[in-house]
Amino acid sequence: MEQALAPPRLPAFFAARMPFFYGWAVLACLCFAGFARQGPAVSTLSVFVTPLIGDFGWSRTALSGAVSLGGILAAIVSPIIGPFLDRAGSRLLLCYAVLTTGAALLLLSLTQSLAMFYLLFCFARMNWASPFELGIYGAVNNWFVARRRFATSVATLAQMAGLVTMPVIAQLVMLHGSWRAAWLAIGVLTLVVGLLPTWLFLVRRPEDLGLRPDGARPHGGRPGTAIRTAAVIAAMPEPEFSRAQALRMPAFWLLLAYTVLVYPIQAGISLHMAPNLIEHGIAPAITATIVSTFSLMSAAATVTCGFLPRRLPIRYPMSAAGLLLTVSPLLMKAIAAPGEAYLAAALFGFGVGGILTLLPIAWADYFGRASFGAIRGVALSAQVISQATGPLISGGLRDWTGNYQASLSVLAALGVLSVVAALAARRPR
User: Fold this and answer.
1) In this structure, are residues 52 and 62 in contact, taking their beta carbons and an 8 Å threshold?
2) What whole-number distance in Å separates Cα of residue 377 and Cα of residue 82?
3) Cβ neighbours for 236, distance < 8 A, ≥ 6 positions apart
4) Are the CB atoms for 29 and 158 separated by under 8 Å?
5) For the range 329-335, what are the long-range contacts, defined as Cβ-Cβ under 8 Å and sequence gap of 24 or more?
6) H helices, E strands: number in the chain
7) Axis crossing angle, helix 405-424 with helix 372-401, rounded to the nearest 10
8) What count of other Cβ atoms lies within 10 Å of the Cβ of residue 392?
9) In degrees to the nearest 10, what's the CA dihedral of 136, 141, 147, 148?
10) Residue 249, C-beta contacts closer than 8 angstroms, at least 6 positions apart
11) 53 near 108, Cβ under 8 Å?
């Protein structure tokens, strides 16, 4: 076991000779893994819905059920995977996730029945929601403390790039081949992009190579940025709480409450944004550009979070993201023209990009690196389950009332509560 956990030889060789901190090489590996993660994303699956229904006659409800079941499986395994991440690091976990996800996507090209589709896609979706999430952000938080916000934003932005690229590639392959060839292309891309960099260059934490987070040198060494980084870390020492300690702290439950409140908004509006806009009289072609605005603003928020000053308490930008997720559903209720729809989608996208980037940072800032996996694993279970409730709230209330007005009001109310939870969630001391 110790030999398996030892860092590979290449990182030690390069770390001693690189003119820059080896953590940036680790961040590049995580970007590749994050890009490769998006094979079983909902946006990728959406490209396959029409051809799968055409060939097999399955319902959209049946296909959507695979996404939900994969999330339930992720909620079950996350508390188990978390402690393993703390012991073994992200290299083994991400290599497993990339390898098995790539294999499942390749095998999806052989799909002959709904049961076979469920077996393969639910497994890949479980990897998407749990091992990838824990492995990527666990490594980021191990290697960066003072620069954690910037590094997290870069890793999240790479995942958004994969989220845009994977469906496009699948669609292009379908135009010149078939949906089976498209699954093969996505599977090969997942393995090629994600596996080799992760296996060769990822290291559990900087201390394994005789380094410190952010490349800090508190005594001696080269002057400049490294010394200033060490001063930042010294001024804001990192906490080290176990999972048992964290579970006894109000900050844990307030962060968990924030998570449970914002993710139904994210999932509920994202899935039903286009139908809601069309019901307000927005043309389908314009609706597509409005949804693109949402994605663009999510990326903009991710970049913005990377430049937030380290000394700014993270509960303030988290509350601002919650406020955007409160205002945007209310604006969506009153859409009468495309301009109003663009504004609502932009605010919603900025809020979603904020929570996707800020929450992994908050868990690490509040409870430290030592037990990040164990603590985040518990929170991730609640996150996945709450995320699954959002579409149910939107779809159920839409079917019951005949429009999206009631569901948007409920989601806006959750946003108000999230602001309160964020402001109350002070960093433990």
Assistant:
1) no
2) 5
3) 146, 310, 311
4) no
5) 329/265, 329/269, 329/408, 329/409, 329/411, 329/412, 329/415, 330/408, 330/409, 330/412, 332/269, 332/273, 332/276, 332/404, 332/408, 333/404, 333/405, 333/408, 333/409, 335/277, 335/280, 335/282
6) 18, 0
7) 150
8) 14
9) 70
10) 241, 428
11) no
- Backbone phi and psi for residue 392, each to the nearest 5 degrees, phi listed first: -65, -40
pTM for this model (two decimals): 0.86
Q: Where are the alpha helices (DSSP H) in 113-249?
A: 114-129, 131-143, 148-176, 179-201, 225-235, 243-247
Helix H or strand E segment including 28: helix 23-36
- The pLDDT score that the predictor gives to residue 231 is 47
User: Which helix H or strand E contains 205, and what residues bound it?
Assistant: none
What is d(CA 389, CA 75) in angstroms, rounded to the nearest whole number?
13
Question: How crowded is residue 333: how many other Cβ atoms within 10 Å of its Cβ?
Answer: 17
**CA distances from residue 67 to 54, 144, 168, 220, 428 in whole angstroms, order as listed:** 19, 32, 20, 52, 35
pLDDT band at 230 (very low <50, low <70, confident <90, very high): very low
The structure tokens listed for 112 are 């002959």
118 CB neighbour count, 10 Å cutoff: 17
The 3-state DSSP class for residue 62 equals helix
Reported as a single tens digit per residue, the pLDDT across 275-325 is 888 888 888 778 878 877 888 899 999 999 989 888 899 999 999 999 999
CA–CA distance, 37 with 94 (Å, rounded to integer) = 10
pLDDT at 199 over 50: yes
